[in-house]
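[SOLVED] Need 3D model of a two-part complex

Original post:
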Amino acid sequence: MKLFNNYILNKLFLMLLISAFLISGCAKATITVRSPAEINTRKIKNVAVGGFEIGQMMLKFKTERNGVWQTHPVLLSEEQQKSISRSVRARVINLLTATPYFKVIFSDEFEKLANDAALQQLVSVRGYKTKNVDAVINGKLWLEIERTDGVDLSKEGLEYFRPPRSRNSIGLNLTVDQVVWWPYKSTRGTLGLEIKLTRLLPTEVVATTFETRTYSQRIGGRNGESFQQIADSFTSVLSTSKTSKTDSIESSSDVLPSFEQIIADMALSIASGFVRRVAVTEKVVSYPIAEGSFTNAKILIEAGAYDVAIDKLQQATAENSDPNDLYNLGLCFEAIGDYGLAHTTYREAWKADPENLLFAQGLGRIERLRRENPQLQRQLESR
Amino acid sequence: MRKDVYGVKLSAFLLLCLSVFLITSCAPKVSFQIERPPVQQIENINYIELGNFQIVSGQIKLPSETASDSSQIFSRTEKLLKPAITKLNSKKEQGHLTADLLRAALVHELSLQSPYQLINTTGKKDGFSGVLPDESEIAILHGKVKYTEIIIESQEGLSYFTNVKNKGATLEQSLLASVVSMGAESSGAGFVIATPYVEQIAALEVEFSLLRKNDGSKVIPSQIFRTYFTRKWGGSAVSSHLPIRVKNLIIKEYQSDEDSSESLLSKIDRAGSSFDYFERGFNLRKNVQVPQTPLDLKIRLGRQIARQYVKQISPYHETAELLVQDGNSVAVNLIRGNAYQEAVAFLQALNERTAADEHNLGLAFEAGGEISEARKHYETALKMDNNNAIFKAALTRTGN
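Solution:
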């Protein structure tokens, strides 16, 4: 019997070994790659920020009692509207100055213009005084925030339990249905923001983005949306794992945020999307690493030491061209944004072992980047 | 001893399951990023200006009127709330903001997808009075916009039938009690209590025309696009101000993107970096129970129409799940790795190609946006294997 137990143990060990092999066989490394700007903005260095025109700005309070709804619009003065518009503009400037690719020229010449048409007119006749500006960013915003104070209605079972009074009685265990009114407060904000990058010479609208973000939160009321709860718990885990300035501010999910807070969060989110389109950004991706003869490559790539890895892998592949090493070299080139060299290296690896899916995937990634970024294709062809 | 043999079998089975799970979880998904050519052929246009988006009043056709006999639409009206919405009339005062948002959505899509340079996006004539390119290369996009938005905030009397359940009852008894109370509620018995709800119904219709700037001739024929939206928060799930058939049609045809089950996993998958996280707005709370704002509604419809129109005049990318045939393994690998150009070069260099190879060559061309080349190879594949359903489907898919 003992022998048999050993046999089972051996089996388990074998099982463990195979699993470990399979897991390591598709090991992926998290690497930081530079993704090119979606739009070629290479010649644009100095950027001035124009005004953010207001398309619509509306705040509403709503109340609902016994099915009777009332809406109270909050009238905003022109000054208040402008102040909100300026705060959105400030968020965009903040993000732009955080990227090293643009220099923001602080001039109020473009901000003073009434609207987009006035800006395009000034630009096309070259009537501006500010010097050394390559492009102007301006925008338009639409905002609507509603806050509702209402009551949910639902049927709930209330449980009654009476313990047995004597040994002979069995007690009572009943559920009694009751109609329950649950007061709630909710808020929903929608921000539509159009951001435009207009190059001055030659005049062209280089990039435009029109994005919307919504914010909706509810406190109180009937807690029936289990799916929503799961989603909330996931996103709350995600948000705590991120290191950002906003996380340092304590925010309770039991309190509705202020209008200003909602607007700021939504504007920040849209502005990040715009920066991705016009500036080189870094993103974290998870790609598989090949098991080459130069074993340290994996450690170097995982540590983000791409330059050292390139150096070592070039030496290793010059002596003995293992296609796995070539693939890892391609991965390093991809990580530093040298897509031309990445493509050549992946191709060499694939030629040496055409049946390898990993190498074909490397080639495919670069092809896809080229297809989706015609500007990048031109850069690669001009090499 | 027999027990021990079971133990061994069990462990072997577990081993097999684990291996299969791990192997399949490593396998890449064969999804394609396909570049589609514009639906309409555009010739000699390199620049686009946005012209006037005029608001027009009038009726917007209900979705089913074009598809089937309109007399059948109102046949089931038992759950219809008052006032019933049987016509969608465009009103000018709601249209201006929508037209402005539509313009913004169009500029966004054109800037993202199209090969054209945008030279005036304001719709005002005085923009860009400086140096302009050759006017015969400029197309001006005009639109006639009809928009209707009906937001009903009200209450409906819903019946609540309450009962007392004994926990000691059998399963059949408690099930029966639930069925009885549900039946009573649907027939209107019990307490009738005013229950609040919000229902939103909206429709947008745009007639686009693309005119050459030098002579005002049409670059492509004018086209009309329509889109609709309807949703109710609170109240009964089955009642509506819209006839139930129209409502179901709108949800099926125009709101298929609303499936919330998809969003959760992909959200987590995509939120790779903190930059991504903010960019995609995951930092913002989104409670689906809170009704959307009228601005949400206008933007949603404007975007849908803009996307549809830009596909007409500009190449676009879409993700598709297509079947790679079991042909030359090197080519299959290249296609699975999304390296279509390499796959085309490799397959074209082969001396002999099987029917599966011809199909895969077509697939690589199709994925790269070269539809006519793709068709040629699908046809060759079908000639080599007359009855193959996959080849036939590929030809139908790429047909004009």
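Edit: Strands of chain B lie at 31-36, 47-55, 58-60, 88-90, 117-120, 138-160, 164-166, 191-212, 218-234, 316-321.
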